[in-house]
Specification:
alpha/beta, five-stranded parallel beta sheet, 7 helices
């Protein structure tokens, strides 16, 4: 199967996840094109059997470039096997309010873009203190403290379940 993976990344974790997805799909016999959302705007989606769009949640929204790409390609996405990958720290936990918030973010994304993905993959992100400025670092420590998470602001902490992600990708491509 020929798969397009288009992503946006703010601190680098979604890029790392997208690269991992591409590598896994290639290892399992698929052909993959990996592109940042801005670079994917001119790609003909009809060349692909499937498309995976990935972005991270920041202040309740996904990156503008991803929203623009999904809006521009909404018709193509509706006509093919497609999925949306939402990367967030909230996906690492089991707080029902956090999960309701994630669903609301995806719903707003769908409403804004005109594309309601049949498959949504929620993937836990990371604290990337090496990428934060002083204020973002302070805010992320505060968020962690609200969830009783101990974090070291001098060290990145990754919550992504890599084995679970492989299984999710395999299941997505195996269906239908």
């Amino acid at each position: 199967m020929k798969v397009l993976i288009a992503y946006t990344s703010t601190e680098g974790q979604t890029r790392k996840i997208a690269r991992f997805c591409a590598d896994h799909l290639i290892d399992t016999g698929h052909s993959v094109e990996l592109a940042e959302a801005d670079d994917a705007k001119d790609i003909a989606f009809d060349r692909f059997d499937a498309a995976l769009l990935a972005g991270s949640v920041h202040a309740g929204k996904y990156q503008k470039a991803l929203r623009k790409l999904a809006r521009r390609q909404s018709e193509a996405l509706r006509g093919m096997k497609s999925a949306f990958m939402s990367v967030s720290l909230a996906a690492a936990g089991d707080d029902p309010a956090d999960w309701e918030g994630l669903r609301a973010c995806v719903d707003r994304f769908a409403e804004t873009t005109g594309w309601t993905p049949a498959t949504v993959m929620h993937v836990a992100g990371a604290f990337r203190f090496s990428e934060y400025d002083f204020f973002r670092s302070w805010a992320m420590r505060w968020i962690a403290a609200q969830k009783d998470q101990a974090v070291d602001p001098h060290e990145d902490t990754e919550y992504t379940d890599w084995d679970g992600l492989k299984e999710t990708l395999d299941n997505w491509l195996a269906v239908g």
